[in-house]
Each structure stands twice: as structure tokens, then as C-alpha cells.
Amino acid sequence: MSAPFEERSGVVPCGTPWGRWYQTLEEVFIEVRVPPGTRAKDVSCSLRSRHIALAVRGQELLQGKLFDSTVTDEGTWTLEDRQLIRIVLMKTNRDAGNCWTSLLENEYAADPWVQDQMQRKLTLERFQRENPGFDFSGAEISGNYSKGGPDFSSLEK
């Protein structure tokens, strides 16, 4: 079995003071560096449809209103190697045109170049889903790919 598109094509991360975040068509991934030796019992994480709150040993690391809505009961967090918290949020709107430009409504925005690269990746991921027999993981895209790129759904197959 081949690797999913997002694994073959790499990620387009947006760096933050506490770690990084990135996205696919369906999910938003958040990686938060925490002090080495952190235990799961030290972590307090609340994931709601439009809100996130993360604290370690009582110190707030991330808190606020998410850029867009997520599926509340499908959000998860894990503690890896006792030094990295990985949060996975399932987007409610899983359209290629739904490229989050920031993690929170007014914080952790991707710079314009990173936003452009994120949108390119989501558009290629959309093309991969629509054409499962082709491999778009190494493809380059140019032209109008904003808002998910051109809509070919009306073309005759």
C-alpha cells in the first residue's frame, strides 16, 4: 500500500514561538515543544469546535478561538517522547478552498509565502483525490490555484 498523499508530498509548516502547525485537506496538525520529561498528567488540553486551550504544569501555552470550525469529538492530542505534544484537529469544511491562513483567529498567521505554499499543497491534494490513478506528490502548480484551484467537476469524463 502506498503512503497517503500528504506524507509523500511533505508538509508546509508555519513556525510559531512554541512549535509549528500545518494542514491537509481534512486535518490541522499542531506540534508544541514542551519541557523534556513532561508527563501526560502535566498536560491540560481542551479541544472544542472553535476553541483550543493547552497548558503544561499550569502554564498556558496555547489558547484561543480557532481560525475555522473542527469536529469536536475527533480532535486528539498525544505526548511524544515526553517533549512534544501533537494535536490533530479534523476540519469541518474539508474543501481545498478552506486553507487556514492562521491557526487562531488573530494569532499564528502564516506569512504570505507559506500561505501560498499551503494553498498549492491543498490544491494538489484535491487533484490527487479526484484522480486516484495519478501521483501528484512531486507536481508543480502554477496559475490560479487559490480557493482550491479550478473546478473540473462539470467536465465530461
Give an overview of the whole structure.
The strands form three sheets. Strands 1-2-3-8-7 form a five-stranded antiparallel beta sheet. A three-stranded antiparallel beta sheet has the order 4-5-6, with no helix packed on it. The chain is built from two helices and ten strands; from the N terminus they run αββββββββββα. It has one domain (5-130): Immunoglobulin-like (Sandwich), CATH 2.60.40.790. The chain has 157 residues and is an alpha+beta fold.
Task: Please supply descriptive tags for the structure shown above.
157 residues, alpha+beta, Immunoglobulin-like, 5-stranded antiparallel sheet, 2 helices, 32% strand, NudC domain-containing protein 2
CATH architecture: Sandwich
Q: Cα-atom Rg, whole angstroms?
A: 17 Å
CATH class: Mainly Beta
Order of helices and strands: HEEEEEEEEEEH
For the residues shown, what is the average pLDDT?
87
| Total beta-strand segments | 10
Protein name: NudC domain-containing protein 2
Organism: Machaerirhynchus nigripectus
Keywords: Acetylation, Centromere, Chromosome, Cytoplasm, Cytoskeleton, Kinetochore, Phosphoprotein
Subcellular location: Chromosome, Centromere, Kinetochore; Cytoplasm, Cytoskeleton, Microtubule organizing center, Centrosome; Cytoplasm, Cytoskeleton, Spindle pole
